[in-house]
Each structure stands twice: as C-alpha cells, then as structure tokens.
Amino acid sequence: MRAGTLQLNVLPPLSLYVHMPWCLKKCPYCDFNSHEWRAGGQIPEQAYLAALRADLDAALPLIWGRRVHSVFIGGGTPSLFSPDAIDQLLADVRARLQLVPDVEITLEANPGTFERDRFAAFAQAGVNRLSIGVQSFDDARLKALGRVHDAQQAHNAVDEAARHFPTFNLDLMFALPQQDMTACETDLRAALAHQPPHLSLYQLTLEPNTLFARQPPPLPDEDLSADMQHAVASRAQAAGLQRYEVSAYAIPGHRCRHNLNYWQFGDYLGIGAGAHSKISFAHRIVRQTRWRHPQRYMDQAMQGAAIETENEVARRDLPFEFMLNALRLREGVAATLFPERTGLPHSAIARPLQTTQDKGLLILDPSILQTTPIGFDMLNNVLECFLPE
Ligand SMILES: C[S@@+](CC[C@H](N)C(=O)[O-])C[C@H]1O[C@@H](n2cnc3c(N)ncnc32)[C@H](O)[C@@H]1O
Ligand code: SF4
Question: Does pTM top 0.90 for this prediction?
Fold first, then answer.
C-alpha cells in the first residue's frame, strides 16, 4: 500500500436518501433546501420523478452490487407528493437497487389535514416509518414559528400515524420564541401522551440566511435553554424513551436505522435537489452534492449531470469527520469501527484520544469510543481535539 493511502477492507452499510425540495410555505427558521411552491396547482411530480430516475441510473455504477439497508424520503415536505408518486418512486428504487428484506423506509410528513388523509396510502405504497414535523403542540408557538398547521391538526396527525405505521417519529423543538419552562414541559407532556416510539428533540437554532437570523424573535437565554434541554431529556427518559443520540430518543427496537448509519459513518447515496452523498471505495471516500435549485437539478439530472460537486475526503479530515458523527451516539461505537470505516490505522487518533481521556471527556475503555456524561454535554470541546492540526 502506498504511504497515505486508505485501506478499507469492508465497505460500510449503504443507505439511500431522496430529497423532495418543495414546501407550501418557507418557515422563518429553516435553512434546509426547501422552496415555496409558488406556481399554484400541483408540484411537477412526474418531471421530478423522471429526474430522480435519471439521477439514480447515473449513480448506479458507484454502488454496484451493494444492498441498501434504509431509505429516507426527506425534505422539504415529501408528503406534498401524492401517494401514487411515492408508490412510483419506491417502485423505481426497487427496480434499480437491491433493498434488504426488512428495509426501513421513512417519509417526512407535515401534520396538515391534507397530508393526514394520505397517511394510509403512504403506508400502502411501502413506507414503514413516518416522521412527523410537529415542532410544538402549542398554537401560539406554532404561529410564532410560521407553521401552516395548528395543535389540533398535529394531534390528529399523530393519531393517524399511530394507526397506519409500525413505527413513527415526532420532531419537536424547544427554546422557542417566548417559551418558558412551563410551556416547554407542557409541550413535551403533550408529545409523550401519544406514546411515540421515537422522538427527535431539537433546540431551535438561528441559522444564517433565514428570516429569524435577520429578525431574531425573543428567545430564551442560554441558561434557560440549557435547563430546557435537561428537562426534556429527563422527562423523555422517564417515559421510557432512551436518549441514544444528542437529539434522538427511542423505545427499545425503534431507533432510526437510517440515522444510525450516518452516525456510524456508514455510506449513503443522496439523490434529489441538493442531496449529499458519501460513498466509500477500497482506497478512497468520496462526497458529492447535487444541484440545489429544483429546476436546475431537474434539467441537469435529465442530462445525466445531477452532481454539482464531487471530492475525495482528505485523509487528514477523516478522524474529525468520523468522531463528529460517532460521538453523537450516547453509547459511542466499537473502537474497531474507526479503522473499518475510515481506512486509517488506530494510531491516527491516538494523540487526541489520550488528550480527551486525560480531560475526563472520553471513557477509558480501549475497546470503545464513547464520551463520558461530561463529554457528552461538552461535545464541541471534545470534537475540537480531533480537528486536523
Ligand atoms: C428537514 S426538517 C423538516 C421536516 C418537515 N418539513 C417539517 O418542517 O415538519 C427536519 C426537522 O428539523 C428541525 N429543524 C429545522 N430547522 C431547525 C432549526 N433552525 N433549529 C432546530 N431544529 C430545526 C425540525 O424539527 C424539523 O422537523
Ligand atoms: S416545512 Fe419543514 S422543510 Fe419546509 S420550510 Fe418548514 S421546516 Fe423547512
């Protein structure tokens, strides 16, 4: 092996991400690649499906012969697509990729009435996990977040998801405009009353290039936000939802396999506008991004050129990139996963490991890479130690 070359003896599990880039309305806090569908009427489902097919066809040589363990249809608002379109999409995927028999297929849905009526048909199309973007069960908070649904619609949507899907997730945010501790706890209680198998609890962040970044709403201060983080974590855990990642909580057997694959530094092919991919080969790891703007993406994909950027991950960046993902997991990962997924020898992280262990931020067991409880609460400080010198 040439000095400086990676050596991956086994390729990691592969997932598929499909990005659906449209929403009814852009939320003021959102920096995802989502675009208001202003043209009126139906979104261009057939044209977009054709672009996804062309994108996937062009990508196949990169993942030839590999089985796919999970599919995640995210957005934007994928539930704006009709069940027939989702059915077609999944048929297109199955015709081109070998999915494992118990493949997890997640679809992100917004909780409007219009979408709720489609949940049964999404399940019929083969979706077996629904992720509902509730954000809050409090009408005043939903209004402040610019959401297009109200609390009652959110409750109804969750009930409907529980009826039709073997598992589902609720996205909830905290530290919302003018939220106090009581309101935060009330919100979480409302979520827990539905006994969700999975919860994602995110602190609202002001992302650059959003309306909230330009005109910040009155948010809880840092101390109150930290107290809220502790309160939601302990309440969710008391209700039997284990915090297995910084923002993710699940009852046993319901962890999100797709996201676990990201955190375990697995591979993913991302198709659709602005989607990201990470694909490993025996001696290199490649990242790609697709064209971001939906129309540009569709035009490019139909010409077999959906990829805007492609680059090999530099050897020196791999330790940080691996740790950035793996240490988000409360239980960490087996130490053997580092050489297996990065193709680097364990010695590549020996020094920062020693430093973080000496500071009490990582546990001392040599068979596992895992933060201590203090390290978990100070993840950014831990990760800094793994930045390239
Ligand atoms: C891809 S987004 C959108 C899913 C869906 N379109 C929706 O809004 O319901 C996934 C989740 O990220 C979270 N999120 C989005 N922007 C955020 C922000 N600025 N701060 C914290 N969480 C955010 C929300 O909980 C959201 O449900
Ligand atoms: S609905 Fe979801 S993806 Fe769309 S703008 Fe709002 S937060 Fe972003």
Answer: yes
For residue 41, the enclosing domain spans: 14-261
Q: Using the mean position of ligand 1's atoms as its centre, give its distance from the Cα of residue 151 in Å.
A: 16
Count of structural domains, the chain: 2
Residue 266 included in any domain: no
pLDDT value, residue 1: 44
Answer yes or no: do 202 and 122 share one domain: yes
Return the HEC string of 273-331: CCCEEEEECCCCEEEEEECCCHHHHHHHHHCCCCEEEEEECCHHHHHHHHHHHHCCECC
CA of 97 to the centre of ligand 2 (A): 29
Same structural domain for residues 52 and 192?
yes
Task: Give a yes or no: residue 3 inside a domain.
Answer: no
On whether both 38 and 145 belong to a single domain, the answer is: yes
What would the pLDDT profile of 289-343 be if each residue is shown by its tens digit?
Answer: 999 999 999 999 999 999 999 999 999 999 999 999 999 999 999 999 999 999 9
Ligand nearest to the CA of 134: 1
Q: Which ligand is nearest to the CA of 79?
A: 1
Say if 286 falls within a structural domain.
no
Residue 191 lies in a domain: yes
Measure 29 CA to ligand 2 centroid, in angstroms. Answer: 8
What's the 3-state SS for 36-99?
Answer: ECCCCCCCCHHHHHHHHHHHHHHHHHHHCCCEEEEEEEEECCHHHCCHHHHHHHHHHHHHHCEE
Q: What CATH number has the domain bearing residue 183?
A: 3.20.20.70
Residues 206 and 336 grouped into a single domain: no
Residue nearest to atom 3 of ligand 2 (CA): 76
Ligand 1 closest atom vs CA 27 = 8
What ligand is nearest to the CA atom of residue 171?
A: 1
Residue nearest to atom 6 of ligand 2 (CA): 27
